[in-house]
Structures are given as structure tokens and as C-alpha cells.
Amino acid sequence: MVTAQLDDKNTKNGCAFVLRKGDTLQVIDPTGGNTCNMVLFNARDIREKMCSGKTLEFEKNIQPTTGNTLWSNRSNKLLEIVKDTHGNNDVLMPPCPSSGKSNDTGFASCLSQMIERLGNFSIAKDDIPDSFNIFKKVMVDGSGSLTAQKPSSKAGDTILFRANMDLIVGLTACDAAGREKDKINSIYYEVICAD
Ligand SMILES: [Zn+2]
């Protein structure tokens, strides 16, 4: 089992790692109000990756939660959501910010962290797909307008995934949804190997 923390100390708010088929990934909000961006690639062929459009089409849910699956651009299952104590996750927004520049808080953007960490797996900026945004609350009104809301996750909220194939996972602790002054954004994650 691997346990680690992502936060904005020393800008180490991102990571990338391999998750084997059958392994479990647990992501925990330790203090409440944190969000986490995640992208997925087939570890054996990085041209296959998470696809928000396929996930929306097959799951018919803009807030995937327990029982839903994250799908690839080749219509294969990547990760199943086994348990989700919060219930607000987003599949509509990309990693922040789309420019790839650090935001005005000095916190490294999710996209810049993804580029740096996934580069270790020979994944280039233009190959990074839109993300699955854990604990992020995005509401859609009757006209179709999107609004990102302040995160409402509570301390200890947890989401548990099981891998359907060998994956490369990119994870970041996100600052985009409204950090309180002096608050440290933290996400804990654990990889529990199947064997
Ligand atoms: Zn972010």
C-alpha cells in the first residue's frame, strides 16, 4: 500500500503513478473543501485515455459517483467508482487553468503539475485529456449554464476506485475552486494493490 499527501507546500501538489488492473485507489479530503483533478491513460498504450464525452454518454450523469465508471476514448472501462461518501464530482471541466500558467495565489496549476508529472511517462501537454474532478461541485441550470460552486466536501470524505486495466494516473490537489487565505490545500491518496 502506498499512502501519500498532495498539497501546496513546495508546489508538490501533483503526482503520476501506475495503477494495476484490480488495484484500488482511495482519495481522501483530510480537512474538507478540497478538490482533486485526475486524468487516466492506458499504461500499455497512452493513446487510449480518459474521455469525458464517452463517460457522459455511457453513464448519463454529469456527476459520476458510486456505481459509475470512467471510460476511455476507445469505449473501454478505465476505473469504477466503488464508494463515494461525498457524491459531488465533476466531469465537465478541464484541469485548471487552461492556459497552463500558475494562478495568482502562487499555487501551481493542475495542468502545469500534470505536464510535469506525466512527462515522466512520455505524455506531452497536448495529450492530456479533460479531467475527472473529485469533490468538485459544478451545477447546471435550466438554460445549460455551468457554475463551479465552492467545494462542500467534509473532512474525511472519501472516494474509492478500482482499476479495470493497467493505468497511468495523474492526480493534483486543486486550488481553483476558491482557496481561503492561508489554507493549505491537501489531498491524501492511497494505492491498495490487488495482490
Ligand atoms: Zn486545479
What does this structure look like?
The protein is mainly beta and 195 residues long. It has one domain (2-192). Helix content is 9%, strand content 34%. The chain has 2 helices and 12 strands. The protein has helices at 52-59, 110-118; strands at residues 2-7, 14-19, 24-28, 35-42, 69-71, 77-84, 132-134, 138-140, 146-148, 158-163, 167-174, 186-192. Strands 1-12-3-10-6-5 form a 6-stranded antiparallel sheet. β8 (138-140) and β9 (146-148) form a beta hairpin. The radius of gyration is 15 Å and the shape is globular. Zinc ion is lined by residues 37, 95-96, 109-110, 172, 174-176.
How is this structure best summarized?
The chain has 195 residues and is mostly beta strands.
